[in-house]
Design a protein that fits this description.
- The protein is α+β, with helices and mostly antiparallel strands.
- It is built from six helices and 14 strands.
- The mean pLDDT is 94.
């Protein structure tokens, strides 16, 4: 654990955070210090060390946007290595630590660059703009954004303390825009978010729900009743059951829409 300021000036702060710090605890710490850049990532369960591995993201923000470097210990040699942002090969819920270097390093600390003034306020995603903590305000603070995100997450996502889950189990697929346009003809309500000139991101939750899986239970496991992205363990379910359910959902969505869902969780 540990939080240490590495550099600081009037506009930004560079802070090194031990991998053992709770992620949400640090978000609240940063907001209390008026350090901006991670408020949209409030209430994500897990540790600081796990955050870059997954390139955690929510409500239009990813952690790679503020990471300066990641320090890690090579398991085989015990040597410390520093990875720059570029070295980490961040992608959508991806990093080098999930693939090429999987099980080869233990992340020991993460160094972030956060704003102190003129924060970039992102309220364009996931209903944040319509939150009572945001709507109608002339000036929106990072605290307002965090409060709105926490409220939205608590209303949509199951508390892992109360019901077993690993958060979002599937990635939102990015498909060719021409494929999306074709799907839209058959399913006019299908949402889509333009990624670039040729690709569109489609919410996996919509696909799963419209494939008939929302709230469906199979034995001790199932798809969450409010957020179809989340698979849940009602108690007593085994890992094989969860994985089997995930594969059934993937098959069903591909069969109905022709879209392949990829897993967001890291399967050991």
């Amino acid at each position: 654990k540990g939080i240490a300021i590495v550099e600081e000036n009037e506009t930004e702060v560079v802070v090194e955070v031990g991998a053992g710090e709770g992620w949400h605890d640090f978000v609240l710490y940063a907001i209390n210090k008026n350090w901006g850049g991670i408020e949209n990532l409030s209430l994500i369960p897990g540790t600081m060390g796990a955050a870059p591995m997954q390139n955690i993201g929510a409500y239009g923000v990813e952690i790679r946007e503020v990471i300066k470097k990641v320090s890690a210990v090579e398991i085989a040699s015990g040597e410390q290595k520093v990875f720059t942002n570029e070295d980490c090969q961040f992608g959508y819920r991806e990093s080098i630590f999930k693939h090429e270097l999987k099980n080869k390093f233990i992340i020991s600390s993460v160094t972030l660059r956060l704003s102190k003034i003129n924060h970039t306020i992102n309220i364009s995603y996931g209903g944040i703009r319509d939150s009572p903590h945001i709507k109608g305000k002339e000036t929106v603070t990072i605290h307002d954004v965090s409060t709105a995100v926490i409220e939205i997450r608590r209303s949509k996502l199951p508390d892992p303390v109360k019901i077993g889950n690993a958060g979002s189990f599937f990635k939102n697929p990015v498909i060719e825009t021409k494929t999306y346009n074709s799907l839209q003809k058959g399913y006019p309500t299908i949402p889509g978010f333009k990624v670039n000139d040729s690709e569109t991101k489609v919410p996996a939750a919509w696909l799963i729900e419209h494939a008939g899986w929302k709230g469906k239970a199979i034995g001790n496991v199932g798809v969450h009743q409010h957020q179809p992205l989340v698979l849940v363990n009602f108690g007593g379910g085994k890992g094989d059951e969860i994985l089997s359910l995930a594969k059934q959902v993937q098959h069903s969505v591909h069969e109905k829409f022709g879209v392949k869902l990829q897993l967001e969780v890291n399967i050991v």
